[in-house]
Automatic annotation (TrEMBL), chain A:
Belongs to the TRAFAC class TrmE-Era-EngA-EngB-Septin-like GTPase superfamily. FeoB GTPase (TC 9.A.8) family. The chain crosses the membrane at residues 281-302, 337-361, 381-403, 415-440, 460-479, 513-532, 650-670, 682-701. It comes from Emticicia aquatica. Residues 4-171 form the FeoB-type G domain. This is Ferrous iron transport protein B.
From TrEMBL, chain B:
This is Ferrous iron transporter FeoA-like domain-containing protein. PANTHER family: FE(2+) TRANSPORT PROTEIN A. InterPro entries: Fe-transptr_FeoA-like (IPR007167), FeoA (IPR052713), FeoA_core_dom (IPR038157), Transcriptional_repressor_C (IPR008988). SUPFAM superfamilies: C-terminal domain of transcriptional repressors. Keywords: Iron. Residues 30-100 form the Ferrous iron transporter FeoA-like domain. The keyword Magnesium does not apply. The keyword Iron applies.
Length: 702, 100
């Protein structure tokens, strides 16, 4: 006996399961207005009464229990195995009421597996708008199980649903109405039942029909099932299509009794919008303009608040330095911590804007249209239109993006998508781009209103995108697969983004950005500060006295800064940097950049923080400057020219566009491809690409 | 093609005959891919068994009405209304749905 009862939320994609899950559990599962947002199961808890807590299970959406992709497979695995710890005691089937007929197919299948069920009619507001009204009382009578009305988006009807769940867990009413089984099916049922102890006819036939997909069975049992299938010459496809047709006939006659549709169909708002957004010419123009708008505003609107933060941090550092005693601990605080954290905080406005735009794209329903617009183009590059979702969402972060590739049915399309997704520039690269672009691209307006820096930023993102296409195109020829792929996708109706939801997403992403990057940065800043302040044996002291004896007449401030840079050079960090300098010199980087490059293997965001720490250690203490100024003032000690010249800066930019510097991405690729082969190939090809392109850019520009 | 022609003219003629016959059959069968924007049709059957399983579960059943909503800018995918909702599919896939 399980100690907690499991209530599973099942239903078609985009019917509002995760919205309901969030309402019931208070958690924040990702929600979006396109099919296939949730790709894995997620557990939460809900208090039904003072004495009863239940486990709520959010699952990926599926149209039937015959899966076509990995996310749908999760549902079959939960429902086909009564021994699965997630096997539900009760299924809440969340149905999109504006499209009830298609949603009922899955409901009927789940019910026939013998799972007690509640039918939750969601999106009644959308149904009403298109003139559909449903008599839920009558439907409940016909089906013999509770039917509840919901608006999961606004949270209407949640208390009633909790009450119904509570009651259903006591009574466990089921609705069993399987298709007619012929003699052959009956025989198969008898054999499967004898071998596997499956008393439910429909489930037993699923074992026969989908043996290869039931991974939990193990090979010998799958083999047994195949023998049964062969013995009776059971045609699984025929069984499935006959079942589907019969069920739909039955559903139609049921729904005829409970649905009242308004006679005349007007063109809906969604159809009107689609005429424009999917227009032959305007479709692409609008899509490109939206992208353009995103990058422009990331640069222009975010600039002012960024400057405030930058100056604020410089002020704090100044204040601390002038009011605290000049000792090692204070230096750790100011040069190490404040400088490093400043390198994170300054990017909050940009991250916020980026996530705001992505979340509006996802919430409005436009994402599915982008998939349609891009399918034909992207198919030439070894992917499917559905790859657009991972590619776009990896502008935020590659980790969830790679997981979202699970909705792509074809193995080859999916693998190529996973392999090229990290080439899309994620938000962790944004700080590096911003700082370096600000250094070398003039803040001018082109054609009156395009901001040059914004254009440069968009250029880097496009570079990432086009190289992802190119890499896909190459992989297309290297991977052989006879598997057929298809693209049959529901287009959701447009919905107004919920501003509260958008706000929460921004807040949450900014929080993760600050805390995740912050944690690493604090650790790295401290380590870096130690490594930069101390050196092997007495090398630092020796170098110091050398400077003193060579420059007896130098004024105080200049001497100080000279001493500081000599100290850094002879510290442990300096030694590391010098050690790898030969390898990165052809790319135009000195040993100081080398240090930052090494630390950014921990996380790309760290680069700016590290640079900021390193240069603030070297800077003269009197006059604390902002991060941008610090980089601009940095001079290469050998050549006497600015370190961040045009050639070096562009070389660094290109390096970061391509370099695979993210442990979490490698880990998720390992998990999704079930082995080290693909993440290692990915690491190698991206590193080589990064090194060579950076090299070419530097050599060309210098 | 040429080489075969020299070697086995009979076979080639037969083959050509087959091809033209196929064309006639294809032309007489109107599919969803042949619809114009805004035009409606009633589903009769499917040409591709494996694809039909997915189409069936999406509500594209024999005897249901479909309407072509849009053709994407590059000619593919296309969008249809079926069973009261919008579905998008590739042209090749639409061509497997035969209309009455
Ligand atoms: N108008 C309206 N919109 C709703 C309702 N419930 C959910 N939505 C919206 O429908 C969209 C899909 O919601 P989700 O909760 O992500 O759907 P899901 O079933 O989890 O989708 P998948 O994870 O893709 O299977 C979101 O944009 C929600 O805001 C509702 O009752 N009315
Ligand atoms: Mg979901």
């Amino acid at each position: 006996m399980k100690n907690k009862q499991v209530v599973a939320l099942l239903g078609n994609p985009n019917s509002g399961k995760s919205s309901l899950f969030n309402q019931l559990t208070g958690l924040r599962q990702k929600i979006g207005n396109f099919p296939g947002v949730t790709v894995d199961k997620k557990v939460g808890f809900c208090r039904l009464s003072s004495s009863m807590d239940v486990e709520i299970l959010d699952l990926p959406g599926t149209y039937s229990i015959y899966p076509n992709s990995l996310d749908e497979q999760v549902v079959l695995e939960v429902l086909a195995n009564p021994k699965n710890p997630d096997y539900p005691d009760l299924a809440v089937v969340v149905a999109d009421a504006s499209n009830l007929k298609r949603n009922m197919l899955l409901f009927e299948q789940i019910s026939d597996l013998g799972v007690p069920a509640i039918l939750a009619l969601n999106m009644l507001d959308v149904a009403e708008e298109s003139g559909i009204s449903i008599n839920s009382g009558k439907l409940s009578k016909i089906l013999g199980i509770p039917v509840v009305e919901l608006n999961a988006r606004e949270g209407i009807g949640i208390e009633g649903l909790k009450h119904t769940i509570f009651n259903q867990l006591q009574h466990k009413k089921t609705h069993i109405n399987p298709p007619a089984f012929d003699k052959k099916s009956e025989n198969i049922f008898d054999e499967v039942n004898a071998k596997f102890g499956i008393g439910n006819k429909y489930l037993a036939l699923q074992y026969a029909a989908q043996a290869q997909k039931l991974m939990f069975l193990g090979e010998t049992q799958q083999k047994d099932l195949e023998d049964i299938v062969k013995k009776y010459d059971f045609n699984a496809d025929k069984f499935q299509s006959a079942e589907t047709i019969e069920r739909y006939r039955d559903i139609s006659s049921t729904l005829n009794e409970v649905i009242i549709e308004e006679g005349v169909k007007k063109e809906t708002i969604t159809e009107k919008i689609d005429h424009i957004l999917l227009h032959k010419v305007w479709g692409y123009v609008i899509f490109l303009s939206i992208l353009f708008l995103i990058f422009q505003s990331v640069f222009t609107i975010a600039e002012t608040p960024m400057d405030w933060i930058d100056q604020g941090i410089a002020f704090v550092n100044d204040f601390l330095k002038s009011h605290l005693p000049d000792n090692q601990i204070v230096s750790l605080l100011t040069d190490g911590l404040v400088a490093g954290i400043g390198g994170v905080l300054i990017f909050i406005p940009q991250i916020a804007f980026l996530f705001a735009f992505i979340s509006i794209l996802e919430e409005s329903g436009y994402m599915a249209r982008v998939v349609v617009l891009m399918d034909k183009l992207i198919r030439r590059f070894g992917m499917s239109g559905k790859s657009v979702v991972p590619l776009i969402s990896s502008m935020a972060c590659a980790v969830p993006a790679i997981m979202s590739a699970r909705t792509i049915g074809s193995w080859k399309d999916r693998l190529i998508t996973i392999m090229v997704t990290p080439l899309m520039s994620c938000s962790a690269r944004l700080p590096i781009y911003t700082i370096l672009i600000a250094l070398v691209v003039p803040n001018n307006k082109v054609l009156g209103f395009f901001n040059m820096q914004g254009v440069a930023l968009m250029g880097l993102y496009l570079l990432g995108f086009f190289s992802a296409l190119l890499a896909g195109w190459i992989m297309k020829f290297m991977l052989k697969s006879s598997e057929r792929s298809y693209f049959i996708m529901e287009l959701p109706t447009y919905k107004k983004p919920r501003w509260k939801q958008v706000g929460f997403t921004i807040l949450e992403k900014v929080k993760t950005f600050v805390f995740e990057a912050g944690k690493v940065i604090i650790a790295i800043s401290i380590i870096l500060w130690v490594l930069a302040s101390y050196g092997p044996s007495d090398k630092i002291e020796k170098a110091e006295s050398k400077v003193l004896s060579e420059n007896p007449t130098l004024e105080h401030a200049k001497l100080d800064s000279k001493l500081a840079s000599v100290r850094l050079e002879n510290s442990y960090a300096g030694h590391f940097g010098k050690f790898i300098e030969p390898a990165i010199k052809p790319l135009g980087y000195d040993w100081k950049i080398g240090i930052a490059l090494i630390t950014s293997f921990a996380a790309r965001e760290v680069f700016v923080g590290t640079v900021s720490t390193i240069y603030s250690i070297g800077a003269d203490a009197e006059n604390e400057t902002t991060i941008k100024e610090r980089l601009r003032n940095e001079v290469n000690s050998e050549t006497g020219k600015p370190t961040f010249s045009v050639a070096t800066s562009f070389s660094l930019l290109i390096f970061y566009v391509f370099a695979m510097m993210c442990m979490s991405t490698l880990a998720v690729v390992y998990r999704e491809t079930k082995g080290w082969k693909w993440p290692i190939i990915q690491l190698i090809y991206m590193s080589v690409l990064a090194y060579i392109s950076a090299f070419l850019v530097y050599q060309f520009l210098s | 093609m040429k080489i075969i022609f020299i070697l086995e003219p009979k076979k080639v003629i037969l083959r050509l005959f087959e091809i033209s016959l196929n064309k006639i059959i294809v032309q007489t069968e109107k599919t969803v891919a042949d619809l114009k924007i805004g035009e409606r049709g009633i589903i009769n059957n499917f040409k591709d068994a494996a694809m039909s399983l997915k189409l069936l579960e999406m509500g594209c059943l024999p005897d249901t009405e479909v309407m072509l909503d849009f053709i994407a800018p590059l000619g593919c995918p296309v969008g249809i209304t079926v069973a009261g909702y919008h579905l998008s599919l590739r042209k090749r896939e639409a061509a497997t749905i035969v209309l009455k």
